Amino acid sequence: MTALLHFLVCWVLVFKAGLGIRGAAIATSISYWINLILLVLYVKYSEKCERTWTGFSKEALHDILNFIRLAIPSQPKARNFGAIDLP
């Protein structure tokens, strides 16, 4: 469903609105947000997720400093990877 919606939004923004590559980037952003919203709604209201998602808790943050220590050194590498795609 979202792939079809992305195709339509991209076509409208790129060709009909005349935004070109900027329209494609905006369409991609819109598609990502729609995917996020649909996923959140599915997890919140689906009966299949009742036992697996019980909500946020402080327990999820108990070891956040170790996670941050691992995440920070990987950021320069992630930024360089994205720079390869720039025209």
Could you outline the blueprint of secondary structure elements for this entry?
Elements: H1 2-16, H2 21-45, H3 64-83
Helix pairs in contact: 1-2
Transmembrane segments: 30-45
Keywords: Membrane, Signal, Transmembrane, Transmembrane helix
Signal peptide: 1-20
Can you put this structure into words, describing what you see?
Keywords: Membrane, Signal, Transmembrane, Transmembrane helix. The chain crosses the membrane at residues 30-45. Residues 1-20 form the signal peptide. There is one protein chain. With 87 residues, the protein is mostly helical. It has three helices and no strands. The two termini are 30 Å apart.
Provide a brief overview of the structure.
With 87 residues, this protein is mainly α. 69% of the residues lie in helices and 0% in strands.
Structural class call reads mainly alpha
Count of alpha/pi helices: 3
Indicate the overall shape.
flat
The unreliable regions are none
Major sheet characteristics? none
What separation lies between the terminal Cα atoms? 30 Å
Radius of gyration, whole Å: 19 Å
- Strand content bin: under 5%
Secondary-structure element sequence?
Answer: HHH
Summed over residues and divided by their number, the pLDDT gives a mean of 83
How would you classify the quaternary structure? single chain
Number of E-type strands: 0
Query: Approximately how much helix is present in the residues?
Result: 55-70%
Signal peptide: 1-20
Keywords: Membrane, Signal, Transmembrane, Transmembrane helix
Transmembrane segments: 30-45
